[in-house]
Amino acid sequence: MEKPLTQHIVPGRKPLNLKEYEQVGGYASVRKVLKEMAPQEVQTLVKDSNLRGRGGAGFNTGLKWSFVPMGPEAAQPKYLVANADEMEPGTFKDRLLLEGNPHQLIEGMIVAAYAIEASISYVFLRWAYKVAAREITQAIQEAYAAGYLGKNILGSGFNLEMHLHTGVGRYMCGEETALLNALEGKRANPRAKPPFPQVSGLFGKPTIVNNVETLCNLPHIINNGAEWFKKLGLTEDAGTKLYGVSGRVKKPGCWELPMGTTIREILEEHAGGMQDGYLFRGLLPGGASTDFLVEEHLDLPMDYPSIQAAGSRMGTGTMIILDDQTCPVGFTLNLQHFFAQESCGFCTPCREGLPWVEKILLAIDKGEGKPEHLLTLDFHTKYLGPGNTFCALAPGAMEPLQSALKYFREDFERHIHEHHCPWSKSKVWQPSI
Amino acid sequence: MLTAEEKHQIDHEISLVPSPKNACIEALKIVQQREGWVSDESLKDVAEYVGMSTAELDSVATFYNLIFRRPVGRHVILLCDSISCYVMGYEDIKEQLFNKLSIQYGQTTADGRFTLLPNCCLGTCDCAPALMIDNDLYRNLTVDQLDEILSKYT
């Protein structure tokens, strides 16, 4: 089984330095694109490979690039940003790539920047990834010293600067337009679209923001071709995917597997199944902002269309398991507390609606819930849904709520009828400040 | 007053962006590195230096949870309270920390040693529960490890 993204990553070992990385074929794709390919050809190849954005949205990467104005008439400078903010609760896949093989990311960024003719690039890294910050800083220095970054890269005439920017918190920074505001030294509120960042992004210039895992796929697609990449996937979706599992399983972790591996195989073979004494009840397939799936979905392939057809989203591909000894109301309350806290406060439905949802869930969890509370939660899932808010934060928050109300409604009702949490005789989860 | 070294670092950040204002978050980080937090006085100094009003800069500073606008202890404990840590029982860690340090979230120990804050997902969910102290990450936490961990910080 091919594992292009993680083949040179050994947990616990220092990542390859530039020389070692070159010895295993590193930066070959940079040589290839600079010498043999026009930027438009790189775009077409990546589009044909059907590489879809690994940050969660799953948009075709080459297609995303194709909206960037090209040629001498285009506004300058153009920017490429690696979204390494990874703040979706339950998600820890990009950490593996950032800490394990920083040169692979830099190589992918050079390819992407060349494809859109960008001359300035940023790695937008979340503050908590201290090891990654150190490794990337060193790798960028090495890449400059070797002539892969800077002016006239490898004599091609192509120039690219690269900077590491570490954030100062807030989930909103993962949303690409909010991320651009953060990079500009502003509050990380999302921006209205259109104009899309491809046309007017960082500092008003054409900009592409790509997820770390997306960028790390690029060197391999350039070296091996679109057909090779498509064949890596088991279903119509291409490539490999970093899948993760957290919660009460025997071996929580993150693995690179063929796209379309079934949920059951990931859970049982790779994560080792449930811990003794715990039973499976449900899972969020790709982070906090995805709908619950349950037992009947376990044989689905983890790819974008299959999970979407089941009413959820593959999201980041890192699953969070709900076990039988964790209260589904408490679980949902924890998620809604997070979203209410992380709302940027810019638009009213999100700013007012999410705390309302949190308060109702807290009341239900405490045994103070009323039957009509469930109807109030139901209407929030509609009024905070897609199309009613300025960005995707509140609709994302509603995904686990609406599916919890669907699959675990009896548990909500028991809290209300029995006036206490059946999972806890005395203690109720108290949201942090 | 900004020190010469701080001005030097902020100038470098300003040189990378179109307008000095664009470097304001970097400037706040630089100031916070020295004092541990951003005082009203420092906020005013940074605002003047990058050409913003104090109110505008404060609207940025208060948006980000890791720019501290109130004094913190010598070490800041960030305890993850997100979903995977919730499932894996971070609340026991929280209660032990409350008891051992005699503080609640948002407070600083009487000796100025620790400030305790809740924090959303630290991105190490396969090793939950987790916390960070300053730049150090601790994972797969159990309550009996806490004394040893805390003793490393004076």
Automatic annotation (TrEMBL), chain A:
The keyword Lipid biosynthesis does not apply. Its EC number is 7.1.1.-. GO terms for molecular function: 4 iron, 4 sulfur cluster binding; FMN binding; metal ion binding; NAD binding; NADH dehydrogenase (ubiquinone) activity; quinone binding. Coiled coil: none annotated. It catalyses: a quinone + NADH + 5 H(+)(in) = a quinol + NAD(+) + 4 H(+)(out). Residues 329-374 form the NADH-ubiquinone oxidoreductase 51kDa subunit iron-sulphur binding domain. SUPFAM superfamilies: Nqo1 FMN-binding domain-like (SSF142019), Nqo1 middle domain-like (SSF142984), Nqo1C-terminal domain-like (SSF140490). Keywords: 4Fe-4S, Flavoprotein, FMN, Iron, Iron-sulfur, Metal-binding, NAD, Quinone, Translocase. It comes from the Bacteria. SMART domains: NADH_4Fe-4S. Its cofactor is [4Fe-4S] cluster; FMN. Belongs to the complex I 51 kDa subunit family. NCBIfam families: nuoF_fam, PRK13596.1. NDH-1 shuttles electrons from NADH, via FMN and iron-sulfur (Fe-S) centers, to quinones in the respiratory chain. Composed of 13 different subunits. Subunits NuoCD, E, F, and G constitute the peripheral sector of the complex. This is NADH-quinone oxidoreductase subunit F.
From TrEMBL, chain B:
Its cofactor is [2Fe-2S] cluster. Gene3D superfamilies: Glutaredoxin, NADH-quinone oxidoreductase subunit E. Keywords: 2Fe-2S, Iron, Iron-sulfur, Metal-binding. It holds the Pfam family 2Fe-2S_thioredx. Binds 1 [2Fe-2S] cluster. InterPro entries: NuoE-like (IPR002023), NuoE_dom (IPR042128), NuoE_N (IPR041921), Thioredoxin-like_sf (IPR036249). It comes from the Bacteria. [2Fe-2S] cluster binds at C80, C85, C121, C125. GO terms for molecular function: 2 iron, 2 sulfur cluster binding; metal ion binding; NADH dehydrogenase activity. Belongs to the complex I 24 kDa subunit family. PANTHER family: NADH DEHYDROGENASE [UBIQUINONE] FLAVOPROTEIN 2, MITOCHONDRIAL, NADH DEHYDROGENASE UBIQUINONE FLAVOPROTEIN 2, MITOCHONDRIAL. This is NADH dehydrogenase subunit E. The lineage of its organism: Bacteria, Pseudomonadati, Bacteroidota, Cytophagia, Cytophagales.
